[in-house]
């Protein structure tokens, strides 16, 4: 796989770790009642929304609430599987593909709203665009970087079947 694949895995591992924490503590406040969270987490979410001018978090349009439900129910468990499963590469390849396609599918309507509404600041866009890059990178990781390359004999012969030894 080489150094390039290792670099992609390290970047994805970092993103998945951030997502695992942020989705459960901050993103879930968009679709769950604030009374379920300690005050310091509610204050942190409000500070982030104010600091970046994130009107989607403050206004909570219905499509954004639905996207955060998808993130909480589908994407968050996949991020956890990816964090824990980097030893089982076939699992990571499959879950990266699933996660990446899901992130791209959810980021397109959010970024479309942010860009076309004219309400988003550059600071807010720079917060959201890396997640689209994460989706693309995770999808490409799932499609293009297989860890299990079957060995193909170079002499053109089929691999021989191993026989059991008899005592």
UniProtKB/TrEMBL annotation:
Q: Where does the record place the EXPERA domain?
A: 8-139
Where is the major localization of this protein?
Answer: endoplasmic reticulum
Q: Which domain of life is it from?
A: Eukaryota
Checking InterPro entries in the record gives: EXPERA (IPR033118), Sigma-2_receptor-like (IPR051987), Sigma2_recept (IPR016964)
Its membrane topology is listed as: Multi-pass membrane protein
Hey, which family's this protein in?
A: Belongs to the TMEM97/sigma-2 receptor family.
User: Species lineage, top-down?
Assistant: Eukaryota, Viridiplantae, Streptophyta, Embryophyta, Tracheophyta
Q: Where in the cell is it found?
A: Endoplasmic reticulum membrane
The gene name on file is LOC125418268
Q: Which residues cross the membrane?
A: 7-27, 63-84, 96-116, 128-149
The record's keywords, sorted A to Z, are: Endoplasmic reticulum, Membrane, Transmembrane, Transmembrane helix
Query: Per its record, how is this protein called by name?
Result: Uncharacterized protein LOC125418268
């Amino acid at each position: 796989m080489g150094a390039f694949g290792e670099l992609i895995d390290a970047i994805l591992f970092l993103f998945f770790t951030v997502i695992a924490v942020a989705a459960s503590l901050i993103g879930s406040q968009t679709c769950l009642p604030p009374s379920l969270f300690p005050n310091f987490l509610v204050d942190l979410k409000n500070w982030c929304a104010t600091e970046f001018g994130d009107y989607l978090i403050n206004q909570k349009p219905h499509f954004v609430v639905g996207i955060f439900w998808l993130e909480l129910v589908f994407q968050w468990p996949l991020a956890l599987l990816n964090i824990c499963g980097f030893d089982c590469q076939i699992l990571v390849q499959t879950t990266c593909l699933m996660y990446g396609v899901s992130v791209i599918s959810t980021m397109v309507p959010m970024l479309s709203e942010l860009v076309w509404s004219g309400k988003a600041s550059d600071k807010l866009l720079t917060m959201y665009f890396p997640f689209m890059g994460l989706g693309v990178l995770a999808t490409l990781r799932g499609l293009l970087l297989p860890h299990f390359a079957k060995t193909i004999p170079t002499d053109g012969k089929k691999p021989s079947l191993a026989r059991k030894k008899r005592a």
